[in-house]
Design goal:
Shape: globular
CATH architecture of the largest domain: 3-Layer(aba) Sandwich
Strand order of the largest sheet: 2-1-3-4
Strand content: 5-15%
CATH superfamily of the largest domain: NadA-like
Bound molecules: iron/sulfur cluster
Number of strands: 12
CATH topology of the largest domain: Rossmann fold
Number of helices: 14
Radius of gyration: 19 Å
Oligomer: single chain
Structural class: alpha/beta
Order of helices and strands: HEHEHEHEHEHEHEHEHEHEHEHEHH
Length: 329
C-alpha cells in the first residue's frame, strides 16, 4: 500500500471546510501531490506556480495553501497584501532545503559576474538572491536568454541542470548538486524495468516539482524509447489522459499523488506509477485535520520579509517576461 492511502474523513468534513472557507473569505488551493481528500475539497488544484498565480488573481483575502512551505512563500511573494496560511509550516522540501541564501551568496562571490538562475523550488531568501527564476518547463528558454558569454549559476536541482546543459550545450554553466529525495527513487533502473515490462506504454513525465527531473533527464538520455515519452505540465498530462485510448497503459514518472487527478480524468486508462513509493512525506503532512485547524485557528500564517519578497518577486517576474513558465495547469 502506498503512503497516498487516504486517512478517513467523516461525512461533514468537506462541508465544514467549504463553509469555513466561505465565512473567512478564503480560497483553498491544493498541489497535485496532496492527499486525495485535500485535492477534492480544494477550490483549485495544480502545480505550485499555477496555484500562486490563481492565488494572486483570486478576490479572496485569505489563501490556504495545501502544499509545501516554499510554495506558500511564493504565493505570499506574489500576493503580499493577502493572508497566506499553510496547514503545517513544517511541511518543507528537501530540494528547496539543499541550498541556503548564505551558501548562494558564497557561490556568487566565487563567480561575481554570473547570472543566477533558480528553479522555483527554492526558499524566499534564495529567490531574493536570484536574478531569474525558472520552472522545469522553461529552464532551457531562460538559460538561452542569457548572453552566451555570461557565466550561469543554476540551482538547486542537479538533474534539471544537467538536462538544461545537455540541451543548450552551454559550457559556462555551473550546477548546484541539490536533489529531491523523492526523485532519487524514480531511477534509471526503475524506469527501464517498467518500460520493458510495458513496452507499449506511454510515459508521462511531469516537468514541475523536483521529483520529475531525474525522469526528465533519463528520458532525454534514452533510458526509455523517446517516442513513448511525453513531457507534460499538469494540465497537459490531464489533457493527454482524456485523449488516451481506453485500456491503454500509461507509466507516470512523478510523485504518486498525481495519479489521483489522472484516474479521475480517465478512469478507463491504466495509470501506473514508475515507483509507487515515490511519495513526498512533506506533502502528506497536510492532513484533513490540519486543514480544518488552519481554517478554524488561522494557522500557520506564512510571513515573508517585504524586502526579500520584493527581490524574489522581481526574479519571478523576469522569468514570466522571458516566456511561458509552464502553462496548461
Ligand atoms: S516531491 Fe521533492 S521537490 Fe517536490 S515538494 Fe517533495 S521534496 Fe520537494
Amino acid at each position: 500500500m502506498t503512503t497516498t492511502e487516504a486517512p478517513r474523513v467523516d461525512a461533514g468534513w468537506a462541508d465544514e471546510v467549504r463553509a469555513l472557507a466561505a465565512a473567512q473569505d478564503a480560497v483553498v488551493l491544493a498541489h497535485n501531490y496532496q492527499l486525495p481528500e485535500i485535492q477534492d475539497v480544494a477550490h483549485f488544484t495544480g502545480d505550485s506556480l499555477a496555484l500562486s498565480r490563481i492565488a494572486a488573481e483570486s478576490p479572496a483575502s485569505t489563501i490556504v495553501f495545501c502544499g509545501v512551505h516554499f510554495m506558500a512563500e511564493t504565493a505570499k511573494i506574489l500576493s503580499p497584501e493577502k493572508t497566506v496560511l499553510i496547514p503545517d509550516a513544517k511541511a518543507g522540501c528537501s530540494l528547496a532545503d539543499s541550498i541556503t541564501a548564505d551558501q548562494l551568496r558564497e557561490w556568487k562571490a566565487e563567480h561575481p559576474d554570473a547570472v543566477v538562475v533558480s528553479y522555483v523550488n527554492t526558499t524566499a531568501a534564495v529567490k531574493a538572491e536570484t536574478d531569474v527564476c525558472c520552472t522545469s518547463s522553461n529552464a532551457v528558454e531562460v538559460v538561452r536568454s542569457i548572453p552566451a558569454d555570461r557565466e550561469v549559476l543554476f540551482l538547486p536541482d542537479q538533474f534539471l541542470g544537467a538536462h538544461v546543459r545537455r540541451i543548450t550545450g552551454r559550457q559556462n554553466m555551473h550546477v548546484w548538486a541539490g536533489e529531491c529525495h523523492v526523485h532519487a527513487g524514480i531511477s534509471g533502473p526503475a524506469l527501464t524495468a517498467q518500460s520493458q515490462a510495458h513496452p507499449d506504454a506511454d510515459l508521462y513525465v511531469h516537468p514541475e516539482c523536483g521529483c520529475a527531473t531525474s525522469a526528465l533527464y533519463l528520458a532525454g538520455a534514452g533510458a526509455v524509447p523517446a517516442e513513448h515519452v511525453k513531457i507534460l505540465s499538469t494540465g497537459g498530462m490531464l489533457d493527454a489522459a482524456r485523449e488516451a485510448q481506453p485500456g491503454r497503459t500509461v507509466l507516470v514518472a512523478t510523485e504518486v499523488g498525481m495519479l489521483h487527478q489522472l484516474r479521475r480524468a480517465a478512469p478507463e486508462v491504466d495509470f501506473r506509477a514508475v515507483n509507487d513509493r515515490a511519495s513526498c512525506h512533506y506533502m502528506k503532512m497536510i492532513t484533513p485535520e490540519k486543514l480544518l485547524r488552519a481554517l478554524r485557528e488561522g494557522r500557520d500564517e506564512v510571513h515573508v520579509d517585504p524586502e526579500l519578497a520584493e527581490r524574489g518577486r522581481a526574479a519571478v517576474q523576469r522569468m514570466i517576461a522571458i516566456g511561458q513558465p509552464g502553462g496548461g495547469e
